[in-house]
Design brief:
about 5% strand; elongated; mainly alpha; 4 strands
């Protein structure tokens, strides 16, 4: 198992459960995708809210960066101050993204090893089956990530050779339905041939991903430019590589994920419209500025010990409190 695929056993249990009800690998992947989207909806809701707020704060932060571009230290101080005052956090939307990546890597592991995670055949038995297959001239590589997909097809061709090893699991392996709409999901595009029907799903996964990313940016009020544009195309290239090197089952998952994600984003946009959120944030910031400028009466001790009333704003009040605290410290530790 690869390090990032540690969720594979859990995802495998979910896929196994779905496959028991709908014994077709393709439909299992699609329904699994829908289930994960529903489960992760609260996190996606949080991410949408965070992303929309981030897009509203961006012009304000850019204004600070432009104003103090020649003084990096002051710029950082003002940006930190702005984040504290506004409650803005650069990392607020990272959790859903990180979880989504973990699900993707976990699913890749399941797609690589359906015998182990969906059919629940132990790794030891799988290794023995590979030895039997190679003894019969199959030339399977035990450590290959594709070996279980290949092995299922080899067992289907000669089931009697594996009856003793697999026992009651033999029928499940024989009946495992890799075919979806005439496409064998166990094959990589290279194995299926780049002119075959199997190439349609990887191409769709890349196209729907690019379209989904662009739509998501617009739905959150963000503009695709600079590093954001670079990240979007970088992700597209990375997943295009996955789509054309791993079994087609992964591309089916990613295509379904993009389509369901599109529908989810339409719903989220109605719940957190960027323009409305921007108006709310601008109003919040204006109210905070007014509150800071508003003056209140405080009692201050003069040098002769008399109490004097003075009207101060929030910034002056904070300064006076700090001065008072310093005087107390000096008085307390003067003998030391």
């Amino acid at each position: 198992m690869n390090f990032f695929g540690f969720l594979a056993p859990v995802l495998g249990i979910v896929m196994e459960w779905i496959y028991r009800f709908i014994p077709n690998y393709g439909w299992t992947i699609i329904i699994f995708t829908l289930v994960t989207k529903v489960i992760m909806f609260p996190l996606q809701l949080k991410q949408q809210k965070s992303t929309v707020r981030m897009s509203a704060f961006q012009p304000m932060m850019q204004e600070i960066q432009e104003k103090y571009k020649d003084d990096k230290e002051r710029m950082n101080e003002e940006l930190m101050k702005f984040q504290q005052e506004s409650g803005f956090s650069m990392t607020a939307g990272c959790l859903p993204m990180a979880l989504n990546m973990l699900v993707i890597f976990g699913l890749i592991e399941v797609v690589y090893r359906p015998m182990q995670y969906v059919l629940r055949v132990s790794k030891g038995v799988i290794d023995q089956c590979v030895e039997v297959a190679n003894a019969a001239g199959a030339s399977l590589q035990a450590n290959s990530v594709y070996v279980q997909n290949q092995l299922i097809n080899v067992i289907k061709a000669n089931p009697s050779d594996y009856a003793q090893l697999l026992g009651d699991k033999l029928a499940e392996v024989q009946n495992f339905q890799f075919t979806f709409l005439g496409i064998d999901l166990s094959l990589t595009p290279k194995e299926a041939g780049f002119l075959s029907l199997a190439i349609i799903i990887p191409v769709l996964s890349v196209l729907t991903m690019i379209a989904f990313q662009i739509y998501t940016m617009k739905a959150s009020g963000q503009k695709m430019q600079g590093s954001m544009m670079l990240m979007t195309w970088g992700m597209s290239i990375m997943f295009a590589f996955f789509a054309f090197t791993v079994p087609v089952g992964f591309s089916l998952y990613y295509t379904a994920s993009n389509v369901f994600g599109w529908v989810q984003t339409i719903i989220l946009k109605k719940m957190f419209d960027p323009e409305k959120v921007k108006e709310e944030i601008q109003q919040e910031m204006e109210e905070k500025r007014k509150a800071k400028k508003a003056k209140k009466e405080v009692v201050i001790k003069a040098a002769d010990g008399t109490a004097v009333k003075k009207a101060v704003n929030q910034a002056e009040y904070d300064r006076l409190r700090l001065e008072a605290a310093r005087k107390l410290d000096e008085e307390m530790y003067k003998d030391e």
